[in-house]
Hints:
The complex is a heterodimer of chains A (about 110) and B (about 120). Chain A is mainly β. Chain A has no helices and eleven strands. Chain A has strands at about 5, 10-15, 20-25, 30-40, 45-50, 55-60, 60-65, 70-75, 85-95, 100, 105-110. In chain A, strands 2, 4, 5, 9, 10 and 11 form a six-stranded mixed β-sheet that branches. In chain B, strands 2, 4, 5, 6, 9, 10 and 11 form a seven-stranded mixed β-sheet that branches. Chain B has a four-stranded antiparallel β-sheet with strand order 1-3-8-7, with no helix packed on it. At the A-B interface, β4, β5 and β9 of A face β5, β9 and β10 of B.
Amino acid sequence: EDKVVQSPLSLVVHEGDTVTLNCSYEVTNFRSLLWYKQEKKAPTFLFMLTSSGIEKKSGRLSSILDKKELFSILNITATQTGDSAVYLCAVERLYGNKLVFGAGTILRVKS
Amino acid sequence: DTEVTQTPKHLVMGMTNKKSLKCEQHMGHRAMYWYKQKAKKPPELMFVYSYEKLSINESVPSRFSPECPNSSLLNLHLHALQPEDSALYLCASSQGSGRSSPNLNYGYTFGSGTRLTVV
């Protein structure tokens, strides 16, 4: 059965800290791994990763995939209170148009 | 246009009502999805339409009935729902099966959701 596990489940940090969120997966016919940020409503797309070892960056956020060890990390540097959200990791299979979501990491950044 | 638009944003319905949720995208995506999300849980897939045909039904009760009138529209018809069906219903779209685009920095696009309360 496909499985996506995120850790930690929740995290409280202070503004300016750097955080690392983890996502490990066991999925048949892996196609891509996606990171989303969810505040009150819809998940907002952050990154899509398909190749091992290539870091993707967007401002203070970056992410990398390891297809050999089957995990990905999401880094946020110089955290701000606006980074407080649930961060969802999802894995897409090669066939079937299906995303398998992890349970999410709840991040709270205190000022 | 890089958005998925869902209406209504909020819906309160009785257990005997019939209502519909609507979703629209104009990105040329050929796969569209309905997800259900309960509080403090990740989204759960309900249905997938690929090229306007239903390709995945995740054993969803028949009181939920999806419809894809054309490649830009996706509806979810609701009838005789239960209070436990109250949730955030998310629509999403993507390019579609067999059209992998690893060089494009986007994945699935989600709508802002419909917050459904069944009373």
